[in-house]
Amino acid sequence: MISNNKLAIFLIVASVLFGTLMLTFLKLAQEEVNVYVAGFFRFLFGFLIILPYILKSKFTVFKTIHHKKHFFRAFLNLPSMLLYFSALVMMPIEKATAISFVVPFLVTILAVLFLGEKIYLYRSFALVLGFIGMMIILRPGIIEISLGVYMALASSFMWSVVIIITKSIAKDDSSITILSYGYTYMTIFSFIIALFHWQTPGLQTLIYLFFGGLFGTLLHLCINHAYKLVDVSVTQPYSFLSLVFASLIGFYVFNETPDLFTWIGASVIFLGVLIISYREMKLEKEIIRKSIDIKN
Questions:
Q1: What is residue 241's DSSP assignment?
Q2: Left, alpha or beta for 131 (phi > 0: left; psi -120 to 50: alpha)?
Q3: Which one of 17, 53, 64, 84 is least enclosed by Cβ atoms within 10 Å?
Q4: d(CA 99, CA 51)
């Protein structure tokens, strides 16, 4: 039987891949429509994908004791989404992804402060390596920081708070409940804003938006369930893998060639991921062995 740690790691890595694919299709869609329309259709299609399950459950999926948290989570998620999607238009996809790497540091700090999680030395070391890798890629003070960078940073801060809220809700609510509330609120909120900036997408763009919604839905299902299994701080270093996926997709889809510093930074980040993966697996084996010894 697969352990919680291994399953959570698998889910996070899968969510990173799905998230990169979502951004790819949304970047393609925004060649025709603005960020408000793209954001609305992304969540509308996501909502339609999970609607059969909501109907099958006879709306019992909405049973929760965290109504205010669900609302506040969506309220923060909306500007986070719009800022990040806007930044995506202004810069290469791997650059926007690299900037979002501030999220694991913020989340880990917030998890310690508000969720009472312990931050172990090896997790801290992996995060430090991730931060160094991000600094190598961005090179602040050496290259100009554009408006898109500031938008991506603001989005990352809001998303970090959303993750912490998600973790606090996940103790009591299922992944599909969190997803259902999020998509219901986000569809309504984004539709109201899109009405004032409406652009009708063509068929090809609608297809892009559908796949953006599909991969975005898979992304949220994976991370919501992963947060039920392990501490948030365990999962965060794996989000750095998104740079590898984003760089490959940026090269093959958008002809965006990552510079040398991007690859050096990515290598440092990947080293941090390898370290925490090895340590988490070793720690898990030690816990299992001690448990067996105690039973014997």
A1: G
A2: alpha
A3: 53
A4: 33
Helices 4-29, 260-295: crossing angle, 10 deg rounding: 150
What are the CA-CA distances from residue 242 to residues 43, 117, 138, 141 (Å)?
Answer: 21, 24, 16, 24
Contact 252, 260 (CB under 8 A): no
In this structure, which amino acid lies at residue 80?
S
Q: Give strand pairing partners of 143.
A: 140
Q: Does this model's pTM top 0.90?
A: no
In tens, the pLDDT along 216-232 reads: 899 888 887 887 777 66
Q: Angle at which helices 67-90 and 175-195 pack, to 10 degrees?
A: 60
Which of 8-12, 242-246, 275-279: highest mean pLDDT? 8-12
Query: Tens digit of pLDDT for each residue in 150-190?
Result: 888 889 889 889 988 988 898 888 888 998 999 999 999 99
The neighbour count for residue 6, using CB atoms within 10 Å, is 14
* DSSP structure string for 160-212: HHHHHHHHHHHTTS-HHHHHHHHHHHHHHHHHHHHHTT-----HHHHHHHHHH
CA distances from 99 to 133, 174, 212, 238 (A): 11, 30, 21, 15
pLDDT given at position 286: 47
Tell me what percent of the residues of the chain surpass a pLDDT of 90: 32
DSSP 8-class letter at 230: S
Structure tokens that stand for 45 in this block: 């299609």
Q: For 22-45, what is the mean pLDDT?
A: 92
Sequence-distant (6+) residues with CB within 8 A of 93 are 20, 23, 24, 27, 246, 249, 250, 254, 256
- Read off φ and ψ for residue 202, nearest 5 degrees: -80, 175
